[in-house]
Give the backbone structure.
Amino acid sequence: MKRSHLVHDAVKRALDLIGALVLLVALAPVLALTALLVHATLGSPVLFRQQRPGLGGVPFTLYKFRTMRETAIRDVEAVASDAERLTPIGRAIRASSLDELPELWNILRGDMSFVGPRPLLMEYLGRYNEVQARRHEVRPGLTGWAQVHGRNDLEWDRRLALDVWYVENRSPLLDLKILLMTFGTVLKGLAAEGTTAAAPFDPEAPAASRKEDS
């Protein structure tokens, strides 16, 4: 690993600790209000929990606010789609990225960073090629280089290439640029209608169908 990357990662971890702690305190009213809205529309539990791969592919528990109803089986073959399960409040919470706020706890714990490749699913670990697997050389992020270049609109090959590019070129200035660009991405999400469907990562699937899994 480059010396510049070692320094960057050490400084970044310190800033992550300070930033996550400050934001958890400052945004406590927002977190509480969002939790109340989720509980009022979806009931308990308020938080969505799932195992995701972190630094080095080591699993951790990711926390997000719930935005969808529990899966409801209508018959032996049909299961409610994400669009059917997503509530109006859940749609607004997703569009504003408020569902991601509990991940500040993940950042405080050291599971995640403010900036880095988004943590995907554990089942994808065995599907990456050698280059794509390099996305796990850094902590996953609340936002990342791929998120500010298309988010769910990206095809998988492009998304993973952007993740690896970040790993190879990470720096304090790049992190700052990504954070600033994220504000614009969130504003676009607030203005957009609906949500982009996300297909699972399958390296054997046609390129056009490889989209980000949220």
Q: What stands out?
A: Residues 3-209 form one domain. The CA atoms of residues 68 and 86 lie 4 Å apart. Confidence is low (pLDDT under 50) at residues 73-80, 208-214.
